[in-house]
Amino acid sequence: MSDDARWLAATAALAARARPLSRPNPGVAAVIVRDGRVVARGWTRPGGRPHAEAIALAAAGEAAHGATLYVTLEPCAHRSARGPACADLVSASGLARVVVGCMDPDPRTAGAGLERIGAAGIEATFLPSPACAASLSGYLTSQRLGRPEVTLKLALSLDGCIALPSGESQWITGPEARAHTHAMRARADAILVGGGTLRADEPRLDVRLPGLEARGPARWVLTRGAAPKGWRALPAPTAIHAMDGVLHLFVEGGASTAAAFLQAGLVDRLLVYRAPVLLGGRQGIADFGLASLAAAHGRWRLAERRTLGIDTLEVYDARDLTGS
Q1: pTM over cut 0.85
Q2: What are the residue boundaries of the CMP/dCMP-type deaminase domain, all occurrences included (predicted)?
């Protein structure tokens, strides 16, 4: 991996600090490096402003002259009443180089940011970075598909169950896996369960980790009826296209809700927490309409596997089956 690629990966890791508080803007990070050392850094602040580049440049001051700016997303080229275009700030900064890990699909920028920076005499480079694209996955999904990125979480026994035959389900996984789930909730804009799960379990769906209690996502329920106080109703999985300001949707269950999103082709990522127990009970996913075993293959790519206490976590990304 080149030095530029390593710096972009480090910048992408920094971008996690912006998610999800930067909404409705994407969580972007910027790092300014001179002579192999970080002189300033920044990430998108709550509410979407200031942008990462503006923060990093203000922190660097004169140290930005002759330095390299690494940024996860192409600096914006459009002016806004909320702040200046980052491409203009960068152009006037005295930087020697700018390296971008992901181009901005927003038509108001879409290449114009790097073009403006290059016209100012600054070396402007696009170096595709999987880490940067992953850090911006919700924003890129929203721009490309007009909907949030959907993560489906499943906590299962070895035989794929989410509950005993009696319905008892707390707790299948151990404290480490549950803590990880809460960390994932803190990264989401909205969290959703089915109406049956809401009625049976009355889940809190909050974040119970020290220091992150205020990061609880907005609570949604999949129902054609009215939502209870403190919740919002989603009439169907396809209605996620109308979830304004939501870039990351975390779906927690139950079996029918999981099946509904899978059948609609609206699951981008699977988080499968698996406990070393056998339950012989209620399956984690209902029938979602697969016509053949052959149709089940090739749909998911293993992205990560780790141990959480006595449990395991497997993360799968959906494969693009369109060929595009």
Answers
A1: yes
A2: 2-115
